[in-house]
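S.,

Sequence below, as promised.
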Amino acid sequence: MNDRNADLEAVINEYSDMLYKICFVMIKNEHDTKDVLQDTFMIYYTKRPDFESEEHKKAWLIRVSQNKCKEFLRFHKRHAAVPLEKIDETELITDGLNEYEREILSMIWDMNLKLKSVVILHYIVGYSVDETADILKISSSAVKKRLQRAREALKSEYKGGLVYEK
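The prediction came back faster than expected:
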């Protein structure tokens, strides 16, 4: 196996689960998510970018996968016979999540793409506000504002607040 193939295999092993979760929340369909991931890894393989660090590589892969998700959603909105909203939500992978976590994930799933992107990167993947801003190519204040709007949307969606019991 040559170095390029070994590198690609290592990247897929390292990042595919994380990227799958991010893309799945955005696209809501297992097969389309796998297509987006395949496109993402093909771009990585063909462009062979140089990275300053592993964190830079991870951020690049997330950015590319999110851009691919956005492209898919734009195309699907214009050309699809079945709207994405009609796709059965039961495809969502919820193994290991309690009822509270499933409810929150469902509400995040229904957010618009701008809010959903910052919530996923900041709260689910764990990037800081500045790192999220770098990945999405927006200002830190825009990330903070979107996070605020997302929290407000979650709070209003779940009237009376959540009762979380472990």
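The radius of gyration is 17 Å.

Coffee later?
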